[in-house]
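Dear colleague,

Thank you for sharing your sequence with our group. We've completed the structure prediction you requested, and as agreed, I am returning the results in plain text so they can be pasted directly into your records. Please verify that the sequence below matches your submission; if there's any discrepancy, let me know and we will rerun it promptly.
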Amino acid sequence: MNNIAIAIHGGAGTITQATLSEEQDQAYRAALREAVEAGYALLAQGATAVEAVELAVVHLEDTPLFNAGKGSVFTKEGKHEMDAAIMCGKDLQAGAVAGVHRIKNPVRLAKTIMQHSDHVMLSGYGAEDFALLHQLEFAPENYFFDKYRYEQWSEVRDTNIFMLDHTEQRDEKFGTVGAVAVDSNGDVAAATSTGGMTNKSYNRIGDTPIIGSGTYANNRTCAISCTGHGEYFMRAVVAYDVSCLMEYKGYSLEKACEEVVMRKLVDFGGEGGLIAVNAAGEVAMPFNSEGMYRASKSQDQETFVAIYKES
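Please find the predicted structure tokens below.
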């Protein structure tokens, strides 16, 4: 039986102890712990990696602490546009959704697209029609309302400024959630979900739903979920780049992640991080920002939860 393992993230950016109160720190840590342990419990019961990453991301989508699902930020029009993706490393099947408004858990829709359509990515109203067809749960607009998110948007809604999450600097905030896992069969999977940028316009879509940029999984190499400034991660094809270094150059998981996140992205001007796991159950969680909400659990490790760089 293969070693099981799971890792999750809740976004990266200028996250320091000075930016969070003790109460906020504890709330984030509790939410991360709950999500990673829920996913691990499924793996321990013999569930697939796909099922585990879906459940972990659903937990993160269901809390307003993170910019995904219920906690999604406001667009220029005062709405919510959500993206998500999921990928199975066993057969390279993938599903993604972009620009949906009313889906309670976009990651569930991404999984449904993967399993019940001939397509990889659906967007907007077409994706919502597909969700209706498969009886996925919708939520009213007020479900996604969060006072803190609304105040964020109110500060910039009459400007051309856009904001990501988790930093004191408005142009460098990275709000995404994600999970990667390996199950007892040695199959890996990745899932990522986001509400995008505060005050975004023109139906902007980032790296999250783009297979190979923000999300990727391949049993031969690893599973990756990214968080950062999407435009950089798309142009650098970050998730697939890690996999390529492992497949074609024989890099270890740790070395490949280090090369992409701490060297290539930094040289390119990209900030953020990623979580990764390989079929052997090894986990990596590198980031080049001040902090990244993250957690992991494996058979040979107690639950690990951290926020700041020094953790």
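Summary note from our side: The domain at 5-308 is CATH 3.60.20.30 (Glutamine Phosphoribosylpyrophosphate, subunit 1, domain 1).

Kind regards,
the structure core
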